[in-house]
Amino acid sequence: MRYIPPSNLRGHDLAPLLAARGHDPEWIQLNDFDPHSPQNVARYTYLENAAKIPFHYRSAVPSLPPLRAWIDTLVASALEWQAERGGPIASIINGPSLLLLGVTGVGKTFEAYGAMRELSVSGVYGEWAVTTAADLYAALRPRHGVDSEAEFRRYRGARLLLIDDLGAERKPTEFTEEINFRLINWRYENHLPTLMTSNVEPKDLAVRLGDRVISRLAEMCERVPMKGNDRRRSAA
Ligand SMILES: Nc1ncnc2c1ncn2[C@@H]1O[C@H](COP(=O)(O)OP(=O)(O)O)[C@@H](O)[C@H]1O
Ligand SMILES: [Mg+2]
Fold first, then answer.
1. Atom of ligand 1 at shortest distance to CA of 164?
2. Measured between alpha carbons, how far is residue 1 from residues 10, 14, 45, 101, 191 in Å?
3. Domain extents in the chain
4. Cβ(153)–Cβ(187) under 8 Å?
């Protein structure tokens, strides 16, 4: 892992995330020239993942207790793995998944990017891939000159994956069902931590995603319902 000097992390609103991890705001600024220190792992991981966070969610902080517990579980398992197998840094390898459910505007995407940010400064390494389900299908449409199978494997095998707005397409097609199934099945079989959001009502999930996907989701992830109104409309 490259050594990242503790510059240019100001202005990233890390204090609340570090506080949630039990650190003071200066924790991440330690300049010890050790590429394997938790602080350097946090700087490296944060900067790598921050590039994937949309501007609107750049200061997001997670608040849902089950989501915060999920973060703790992933950090703990990375540390356990390192204690058992050795290795210079702790990395997230396996873990449970989480599905945030709620109406449009309730704050699902905000919570998801907040979780990504908090996990990134935790001092364990975890590389995220992020996509909305709609962008994923678009990226995977077979077309000339693009190896969509290679693109698919990039998402399928990501250490940590955020799939935003799963099931939001108006009409599921054979193509989107196949992508959902292959993606979820792979991540289910390999215990790869996946954070998903959906505004589909729980009773409609099976119709939208299909029984094979729902059955795997039931085993691999906790469903977290989010209550509230559309924050975008309240703000307007
Ligand atoms: N805890 C929060 N604190 C401040 N703003 C929030 C919070 N949660 C959501 N928001 C804001 O409310 C709006 C809707 O949130 P978003 O996560 O995009 O909703 P959803 O993904 O459920 O449709 C966004 O502008 C977001 O930045
Ligand atoms: Mg959203």
1. 21
2. 21, 21, 10, 36, 25
3. 61-227
4. no
Q: What is the pLDDT of residue 10?
A: 82
CATH for the stretch 61-227: 3.40.50.300
Q: What is the 3-state secondary structure (H, E, C) of 140-178?
A: HCCCCCCCHHHHHHHHHCCCEEEEECCCCCCCCCHHHHH
Residue 145 C-alpha to ligand 1 middle, in angstroms?
38
- How confident is the model over 60-82, as a mean pLDDT? 98
Q: What tens digit of pLDDT does each residue of 7-48 get?
A: 778 889 999 999 999 999 999 999 999 999 999 999 999 999
Beta-strand (E) ranges in the chain?
A: 97-101, 128-132, 160-164, 194-198, 221-225
pTM exceeds 0.70, yes or no: yes
| Ligand 1 atom at minimum distance from 165 CA | 21
Beta bridge partners of 164: 132
- Compute the distance from residue 142 Cα to the ligand 2 centre, in Å: 26
